[in-house]
Amino acid sequence: MASLNDQVFWRSDGHMRDFTLKFEEIIFSLALSSCVVIVSPWACRYYFQRPACLRMSMLLYAKLVFAATISAAQISNVAIWTTTAANHRTSTTILAAVVDLAASFATGLLIYTEHLYSVRSSPLFGTYLLADLLTDVLRSRSYFLRDGLDAVGNLAAACVMLKLILLGLRKSSKTSLIIDEKLRDEARQESNTGLLNELWLSTLHVLPPGSGNKPFEELGGEYSPETLSEQLSSHWSQWQHPQQPSRYSLLAACVRAWKFRFLTLIILRMTLTVLKFSQPFILHHIIGFVGRENDGSVDPKFPYQLFCVAIFAFYGSVLSRSLFARQMNGTVARIRGSVLALAFQKQHRLTEAQARTAVETSLMTKDIDGIATDIPRLFELPASLLEIGFGIHALSKVTNVSIWTVVGPVSLTTITTYLIRRWMEHLFASWERSIAHRVAKTSQILSQITVIKALGLGRPVAAYLQQLRVDEIRSSIAYRRVHAVSMAPLVLNDLIAPVAVIGVALFEGSLGSRMEASTVFPILATVSLIQQPLLALPQSFLTSSGVLGCFARIQSFLCLPDKKDCRAASDPARISAIAQQSNAAIQFHNADIAPYGKTEALLRGVNFRISAGSITTVIGLPGSGKSTILQGILGNIEVLDGSINVNTTDIAYCGQVVWLRDTSIRDNIICHRPYNRAKFRRVVRACFLEDDLQWLPGGENFVVGANGANLSNGQRQRIAIARTAYAECAVTLLDDAFSSLDSDTAITILYQLCGNNGLFRRAGCTALVVTYLPQCMEVADQAIYLDSLGTATLRTMQQLSQYTDSLMAALGTVNRNVPATQETRELGNVRRCLDAGSESNVGDAELRQRDNITLLSMFVRAMGWMSSIIHALLLFSSAGLEVVPEIYIRFWIENHPDDTSLFVGYSLVIVAASVTAVLHYLLLYTRLGPRASASLHKDLVRSTLGSKIEFLSTAKVSNIVTLYNKDMTIVSRDLLAAHLGLIYAASNSAINIGIVLTGAKYLYGMAPALGYALFHIQDYYRCLCGQLRDQDLQMKATLPAHFEETAAGLTHIQALQLEEKNIQHGFALIKKSQSPFAAVLAIEQWLRLVLGLLVASLGTTLTAIAIFARGNSSQSAIGLSFMGLIYLGTALEMTIDAYTRLEACFEVLKRIFSFTEQTPQEAFACQNLLPDNWPSAGRIELTNVSAYYSRTNHARPALRSISLSIEPGQRIGVEGRSGSGKTNLLLAILGFLEYDGRIRIDGIDVSSINCEELRSRLITITQDQVLFDADVRTNLLPLSLGSVKKAAIDVAKAAERDLELEHLLKDLHIWTALAKKSGLETILDDAGYSKGQLQLLCIARAILKHRDTGYKVILVDEPLGNVDSATEETVRRVMRDYFVGCTVLTVARQHSDLGDVDEFVQLRRGAFIALDRERTDSDSSEDEL
Question: What are phi and psi of 402, to 5 degrees?
Fold first, then answer.
């Protein structure tokens, strides 16, 4: 029989010479091997349910040969134990040998099924093989140490070699063996590599070689959205019932779809927990061994055994963490890809309104990202509970302290933190409202910044914008202060539990009469391991609730009812039958119809038949139901009675709202159809796109941007019409598709499409056209007329001939086509944007190359150098004080281990750390941060208000608003947090490294190597991670953009039957986004792995020195060093992660500094002081003026050799078509344009006057109305914008002023609306003014300025551009009566709009032409541009 020591599970003498045979048999065989025996039937069943995807090959035969050899060795093992080695058996030996034999058979079966049915080798199976190999190494050693077991030891050693070869064979690539060619092309090395590569740099296989700027190689195979969607759909369909499914059915389906991956995660996480909590026990033995006398009483093998156990614990925890992270990353990528795929598929089965609602709920951004981010944290919740229980049990074995000694203080501080955070939520909501208020006001001002500058309001508006920022910062101070105070319980959370445990153990007697290093430091290590999950537990609960909410919202979206087709003949068979029976393409049979989802009919008894190949116009007043008729043909309405029959599914649709994809013009027009160049040219010509394609870069390959953002509204509309014309579908629907075009262009295109030789007629299309153009009556064969009673009547043109004149007149009164001037202005902006974009941004590239140190110094300068230095010292002190308690413990043990009064000093250190944390938070968040935010915002405002018109005319307002909104918010929040986190984490890392290195003398020699390694690790991670995150963000942005694009055009997609192609495009985007997403996870996993291995190596070295060179260090020094090791890995990760987050914030700083330094600014002219009443006469002289928006070589002049002299009090009109240069003339006088020649006003050259001062001295009435989000009084007196109301105010003067404003508004006939509300205190948006009345309000503003200042020069741009016929006479009278004696320069498109002028001149292409006093309108055929 075996020795008595081998008959027991664990030796009771305390010596660790070797594991007992019974221990090895129970743990290594009965526990480990039985797992594979139990799991293998389910795993094989899982594989057999899938089709074989790989061929039989020599690789498989080789694997089976080695597996069979292992089984033969296990048979021999059973035979030996039953015969020659029977004397060494324990009670479990035979059972363990039989289980090992069964496990070898199961291994061979799994190798066979895995090879044939899975492209990717199972990491769980690989983990088992590696663990089994390591246990065989330990068992072979045990057998060789015992007499009479050499044969069993030789078999175990042979199994080690066989399993090592088997692991190597599993690493061999199986790509060439894949049967399916597409799957073979998609398969990647990641899909069939082994465990060892999974642990090291192969985790970065998805990273592009070299620079991160190269495109990613797509993840295919098991990560493709098609595969993932199929895997999840099979389980989701089982959980999704016709009734209300469970709230978490989608999550349950995900778990069931990848149950083996979740099982692997559980096993790996439990392994990690066991290895983590073994470290305090190892520390106890190491410290105890260091303190023993070297008298020979210790077993000589004990140091080596202890060293091996420490190595296993250090490196095992690192490797298990890495395996767990890799498995978790793969699971997250699968869930993310599958949920995205299901969402894309579901979206195409909804109505457009449902799809738009999903977009508004941030389904594709917040919820998907929430799932991807928080699933690992969701998994941590049960793991944290397990670790807390395990740790408290372990702590109870060392001390007699109660569980509440650890949980109580932490719970108390956690509850305190929670209550403070609840208070902070209310304060944060107030801050959020203040931000929203500032952004709304700022956005409204930025959208009209050019006109504001033209009115000379730059200075008051700049002050107002800065005051908004200051008010927002003030509203955040309360939140910032409470946030700083909340740091105290957070710091106490980290430090109070060790104090409580040590205090209770010390005074209760668990520690005996003195402080012993071998007891105290293991207790502290255990407490720290308990604290980590305990502190994370509240956040885990919140995170779990959040991720469950994300799953629930996505599930609600997936459970939305599919769209129902209301048409009676929606299937192809019935459509074919109807087409054979009748020539009618469309038939409404006594149909009562309502908008989709409504139950009350909008139109009743609709009954008509439309013949194939006819052109039908649908006419009626707004809201009569014209669009509903077209939606009925598409099947997107409710048919309450009757029926709708359409004999084809080949339908093209162009809606009221333009929908374009973010691709080229050609791809938008052909829209997944075969490209026919001849037809493409015909369509382009008919839709007036030829000229656009000539000057747009790339022509037909020009990318239009998101929904045509790079084009004018007219260009967008014409491309949408061209797409419909190119389709040449059997049925074509145009729903008010001409409203974004000027009348001339709209009428011409209407004839090109629907005229006698139009494209629709030549293609034989059945077209229905909804439009307000009166000319539709001339091109249509028939008309559907909708009256106000909810009836629709089809009549031929002959039947309507007697009503044609009245119908055309009615249509003319509601015509909604845009004026030609608007399209001209938009085209001009597009051209200037392209001109600006074609120039290389050399200066901007120089700014991008600025290193982060320079950016950080600029930010620190904004905060103040001295204050920043004081804050850095406080922060470093705070980080140091958090480590001082362990140092204090060492001092206590080494100097006065029996003095319990030193516990008071230990407690005071905790208090000092909390106070210091509050102080540095208060300084940063309430002083330095607000100061930097206000300073940067002031620079931003200065650059915006001082920018040149060449910038304002090309810059997108949304980009500027982003600087004021998102970027400035990041500066206020994220930048401060990242700045704080970096200094804190770096300080903490440096202190912990110092503590570790003080553990032994020889460790100091590792400092250079450690510094070198950390430098290169952070450099590699920082450079690559920044690039990966940028590309990940770029690829992630494409998904919600495509989701929004699909939702916006779902009606078009469904009408054109593009669902499948659009889904495939969405799947391609998912596939592209999966690679950078996986790459970011991989680089983060790599960082933790490398830092973990570095810390493990440091711990191994420390252990070796402590064990084998005991005289070089003390027990307390070793204990303190090991405590530093526990914190070091986390601190290093925090440091590098904080620096990465800070770099992301640096991108914001780069954008802000780029804007403030690269935005072209107007020159500041130095001149003598102007007379107070200048200009008092009003003489204007222009001498040979040629003006430019930009001085670049290819820039065209906006004005050419203009000479004009205007006498004081003279009224001059300038007439010209759109694009002739009229407005440019005013811009030159106002100092917006650079010019050659001379412009003088009252004898003073305007180039010598500061631009802002010049504009404030001129009175300008613009075509674009400047309206502030304020009351009417402020809009009339904009100089008071944002002014602080004083307590002492002259009530009499204020009343007199208000009376003056009231009389003026009454004279302009716009007071009545205010009298019914709050008078001058009425908010302008609530006044209900029409465009004409708003124009009168702007004129009233100019009148008041003239009264207050006496300035004599009035510049007027299109005074009648925004007024109706009823208001026109009032404008003429006001301009005539209120500006008597002033010099008035008016520009207009038509002579009739100039009003009462003394003389007028004409402009053409930026130059004056001969006077034509007899002319009454400008009918030049000049091209507008």
Answer: -75, 160
